[in-house]
From TrEMBL:
Naturally occurring in which organism (per UniProt): marine metagenome
Xref: InterPro entries: DUF2794
Name of protein: DUF2794 domain-containing protein
Pfam families: DUF2794 (PF10984)
Amino acid sequence: MAEIRYLYRHQRIYFMKKSLVVSGNAYLSEEKSKKDIRFFTKDELNIILSLYARGVSSGDWKDYAIDALKDKTSFSIYKHASEMPVFRLTKNHKSKNIKERWKIISMSGQELKRNKNLNALIKFLNQKKLSLVK
């Protein structure tokens, strides 16, 4: 019987070592989880918002959404608020291949362009728009 108790206690101690002990309040744990989420830099966001402003002023776009996750951040542009996004500019933070850092993804989910530089993608979007107007 003593052996069983000892094994039972040993398992319980082992179990307690693996369990998660939460101390403090929920606000602190929420703040710690926010540190894992990455975002656009200030310059990148300025470039993206200036592109969006040109699209809104020309009447092509109406709404946008920003999604920030652990491994990627995306800026989605909508023609109408109730539709799927026309395209998404996505920054992959954990990309092993540096050329896949920035991507443009279409409404259908197809990857239109990828590059290591945001300015190259903006230039691509401007050229594409000019060719559509002609």
